[in-house]
């Protein structure tokens, strides 16, 4: 049994060697042995390519403002591992994490010796979270973010009050398929018979797959731009302002504290979810809770302004759709500024298209790498570039120090790419900006 936090974390991370093993059999086996804790918790399931974490945050903040105790399960973590299992935005303690790891380890050991095979890191963490929210620290509701796909994701053992599919994009194509329809089929796997589904998906082919899945299961479906609408969209200095309309009510001049037009879509999905919970599940949520909850919602690393003098911004745009959203914001908000972008990515992404989009909006594009097994080298990124005004930063920490020190008025420095990279780089940048 583990006595320290470090021992528990080392064991969890050691499960990474098992990679990804699609399927729910190992999760179902562990939950059976734990006396089905998933049946003791009310849940909301959030899937999609982009916007999952932001939508979870918006909805959690609305519910928390309304007085509820809200658990969240998210991935990956940004600043500390414990974030993945949180209550009202506060990560579990080191002591609690050791306790829940000691509950799951004997089950993992037994599975290691079975025909099913050992559970992956993500399966272990998912089981830990379900046990935690059901037996260690009960909450009013838990919002579960899908890890990958949906149909065979380890979180898909829950039977939620409500499912949300935020968006569809061509990410993880080697696993989920290389068309919008194929990816939508995997994401739609979280839709349960008779359980309402809210979606912000816009591609007609992908939406058709989701609609058919909902129809087969007699699951009521609420679609962005059809059943709930946004309007009067306006960028404000530190967020977005918009109007929201649905069959349940209209809200004018809602504001988020997250930058990006795409965040309006995510916020709208969260508001629609709050309305469905209020109207069909007796959640006491007032208009003031929606307004304050959206304003208070904070999700690190998503178009996050670290400093305005000098102007430094980070964004975890780690796939093609994310990069497109970042480029759109640069064009609409910072067209009159000189833009320098530092970019690091994982090698299993569509690097050529991502880099081409960044080239279009950056006055200078700089590539770097970081210590992570799947990280692309700076040289690999450079080789995918099409313009001459690009450079390599062999040591990103040295580059950050030089760039932040020399940043001029009228210039914006953006660090983007892999969330794993941003989680490493952000503390370095914050330290430099505070000196």
How does this structure look, described?
Strand 7 (197-199), helix 8 and strand 8 form a beta-alpha-beta unit. The protein folds into 2 domains: 5-296, Mur-like, catalytic domain (UDP-N-acetylmuramoyl-L-alanine:D-glutamate ligase, 3-Layer(aba) Sandwich); 304-434, Protein-Tyrosine Phosphatase, Chain A. The strands form 3 sheets. It has an 8-stranded mixed β-sheet with strand order 4-3-2-5-1-6-7-8, with helices on both faces. Helix 2 (25-33) runs parallel beside helix 5, helix 11 packs parallel to helix 12 and helix 14 (396-406) crosses helix 15 (419-434). The protein has 15 helices and 17 strands. The longest helix is centred in the middle third of the chain and has 20 residues, at 261-280. By secondary structure, the protein is an alpha/beta fold.
Quote the average pLDDT: 94
Number of domains: 2
The value of Rg in angstroms is 21 Å
- In order across it, which strands form the biggest sheet? 4-3-2-5-1-6-7-8
Q: Globular, elongated, flat, extended or rod-shaped: what is the shape?
A: globular
What count of helical segments does DSSP give? 15
What is the fold-level CATH name, i.e. the topology of the largest domain? Answer: UDP-N-acetylmuramoyl-L-alanine:D-glutamate ligase
Question: CATH superfamily of the largest domain, called what?
Answer: Mur-like, catalytic domain
Instruction: Report strand %.
Output: 15-25%
What is the β-strand count? 17
Query: How is the biggest beta sheet arranged?
Result: 8 strands, mixed
